[in-house]
Amino acid sequence: MHAFSKSTKIGAVLCTISSYTLLSWIASPDLDIQGRNPTEIASSLALGLPTPQQAQASHVHLKKSFLTKSEIQTLLEFAQEMKSTNQIGIVAKDGKGVASSSYQSTVWTTSYLHTDHKFEEQLPQLKEKIRQSLIDVDKKYFHIIKETDKDEEINVRTIEFHEYIPGGNLKEKLHYDAGSCVTIDICLEDNYTGGNIIFPEIDGTTTVVSKSQFLPGDAAFFMSHKYHNVLPVESGNRKVLVAELWKGPKRACPHRCITTGECTYSLGRNQMERSREHLSILG
Length: 283
Fold this sequence. Notes:
8-stranded antiparallel sheet, alpha+beta, Jelly Rolls
């Protein structure tokens, strides 16, 4: 397991510190460490989670070959089947990161593979592998989950299959996965250019996880409250799997749920919203 750690130099740096690897950084002087909104600190503390500012001090940890080629193929086939048979929630977004109103403007699609427990039912071993890896990484590096937290209350919140085509990106300033503990980002294919994962840091630098460091099967683990973005894809199709661990119940709703209580968002509603998008495409 490697950690993308802090460097005082600008540009590519490679050296080994213990079992960690120091990687490239670029300047990012416009980081607003005051946060995205005035309630985020109170919300984090109420949930027993680090604030985004505290999470900025944590590192990104890379596990090479987390998934085998066989697991990647199985996962890609499963995702395609779920999408083609409309069994999962899907959201299409444009280059600004908002819901797309047309096929032509869609550059980023998110498929919620946990919908109706489909992922857990059909790929139970892979689901447990992801869950346990998130718990293990937290125990070794982050220590967000406490001994007093009940095991049955520590679950995978969302399992998302992301596809980016040219123009697709995640550029919301100071984006983080609010309410979750640890996030895993797994590379599934490498037939694209651009699309690097970046982490703007509290000292004005930026951690860059480049494509050369993030090959198919590799997994990047990080505190969910650590700011992160995806640079625009320049060519090809960037396919990744993203999952988040949280202190909450298992979720089966067709989106990234924001409540630990009963969720009323249904697959039928998601399909109806997508139908409206299709109608707008047809004019």
